[in-house]
Design a protein that fits this description.
Elements (H helix, E strand, L loop, with lengths): L3 H11 L11 E5 L2 E4 L4 E4 L2 H4 L8 H13 L10 H14 L3 E5 L2 H20 L5 E5 L8 H5 L4 H4 L9 E4 L4 H5 L6 E7 L1 E2 L5 E2 L2 H14 L2 E5 L23 E4 L10 E5 L1 H4 L16 H16 L2 H22 L3 E7 L2 E6 L4 H9 L2 E2 L1 E2 L4 E4 L7 H15 L1
Parallel strand pairs: 3-15, 5-6, 5-7, 7-10, 10-11
Antiparallel strand pairs: 1-2, 2-3, 4-12, 8-9, 11-12, 13-14, 14-17, 16-17
The structure holds pyridoxal-5'-phosphate.
Length: 396
């Protein structure tokens, strides 16, 4: 067999250089551990960027996929299929939304949400110059629409012009939102907990103020739950912690636990007055394999009481991280909700993450100075303790 080094060289010769990858070839997973092709074991606190909620190699999930593969993988959205119908019913139940559109990724879900909001406003007044307010430091994906609402110049600049009429405000600064509202505003879009931008949770006050503003002006509130949703913050969707409800929301990442699926969902009010026959589509979205993945994931969430588990283990993780904040002067803050946490350093964290990888711990950053913790939702206290032990040894 070729060596890991050879594979990495082959990768660098064949793949487009859009990632600075860590120098490992991951080959298999088991529970909360990943193994590289040389058999080295890694404790995984990244979960494929908040994707693999159930841990690797879950037999029930894997069997459900295998069974669906043997039946039929793809049919097309010209026809109905049972897995997608079941998945949509389940998603409605856990989210309280009324209608679901299945996509293949997070970015594609954002695209759909933007289109739904623009169409809703268009049907009201016939104008074609509506504006969307998004947040600084946000991240919504790499396609042109999603990039246009991503509040980070670094990702956008080389690809200008973006889609037009996007204005930026600051998360948790309601006045900054008010300052951007005009009679053309059709939507206010943000992550309930900002992920890539550095793990900033929206405050309850901000959520309620935006919600009230949206109701008063018939503006649509769109919440991006692609990273913070699916149980990670102790509810199926993080906004459910706040006693409000968005008009449109997006989901992806852990929704399929590794099978590439996403969704945007909306209330009946929006559904009845926005996208209609011929307005939107996708070839793969909601195909039988994707549907089977979502069904298996949601069934396992319920059977294994994942949400309850996250609430317990999330507090444990937060406490253990707080100990590090107390202990080290160069760690300034912990931020986050349950199993979506950030540890803020007064210096770049790249070296620490590199050292951790050498010692068999997978971590990722969220911005240069922040280590992000988005482990599989099935982690246990002993996994948290082990992570803290390895991380501490990298801080000396
Ligand atoms: C990852 C992410 C996206 C983009 O999802 P992709 O599946 O990579 O397109 C959008 N919004 C948030 C909050 C994300 O974390």
């Amino acid at each position: 067999m070729e060596s890991m080094k050879n594979y990495i060289e082959d990768a660098e010769a064949a793949l487009l250089h859009t990632y600075n990858r860590f120098q490992v070839v991951l080959d298999k997973g088991e529970g909360v551990y990943l193994y590289d092709m040389e058999g080295k074991k890694y404790l995984d606190f990244c979960a494929g960027i908040a994707v693999f909620a159930l841990g690797y190699g879950n037999k029930i999930y894997n069997d459900a996929l295998k069974e669906q593969i043997d039946k039929v993988i793809h049919t097309s959205n010209y026809y109905y299929n049972i897995p997608a119908i079941e998945a949509a019913k389940k998603l409605k139940k856990i989210s309280g939304m009324d209608r679901v559109f299945f996509t293949n990724s997070g970015a594609e879900s954002i695209e759909g949400a933007i289109k739904a909001a623009r169409k809703y406003a268009y049907l009201k007044d016939g104008r074609t110059d509506h504006e969307i307010i998004a947040m600084e430091h946000s991240f919504h994906g790499r396609t042109m629409g999603a990039l246009s609402v991503t509040g980070n110049k670094k990702y956008r600049e080389a690809f200008e012009p973006m889609i037009g009429n996007i204005r930026f405000a600051t998360l948790n600064d309601f006045q900054s939102v008010l300052d951007q509202v005009t009679d053309k505003t059709c939507a206010i879009l943000f992550e309930t907990v900002q992920g890539e931008g550095g793990i900033y949770p929206a405050t309850e006050e901000f959520m309620k103020q935006v919600k009230a503003l949206c109701e008063e002006r018939d503006i649509l509130m769109i919440l991006d739950e692609i990273q913070c949703g699916m149980g990670r913050c102790g509810e199926y969707y993080a906004w459910q912690r706040y006693g409000i409800k968005p008009d449109i929301m997006t989901s992806a990442k852990a929704l399929g636990c590794g099978v590439p699926v996403g969704a945007f969902m909306m209330t009946e009010k929006v559904a009845a007055h926005s996208l209609t026959s011929g307005d939107h589509g996708t070839t793969y979205g909601g195909n039988p394999l994707a549907g089977a993945a979502i069904n298996a994931v949601l069934d396992l969430f319920e059977e294994n009481h994942i949400i309850e588990h996250v609430n317990q283990i999330g507090d444990y993780l937060a406490n253990r991280l707080d100990e590090l904040v107390d202990k080290y002067d160069f760690i300034t803050e912990r931020r986050g909700v349950k199993l979506m946490q950030g540890l803020v350093f007064d210096r770049p964290v790249g070296d620490i993450i590199g050292k951790a990888l050498e010692k068999g711990l997978i971590l990722i950053n969220a911005g240069p100075n922040i280590i992000r913790f988005v482990p599989p939702l099935v982690i246990e206290e002993e996994n948290v303790d082990k992570m803290i032990e390895i991380l501490t040894s990298c801080l000396q």
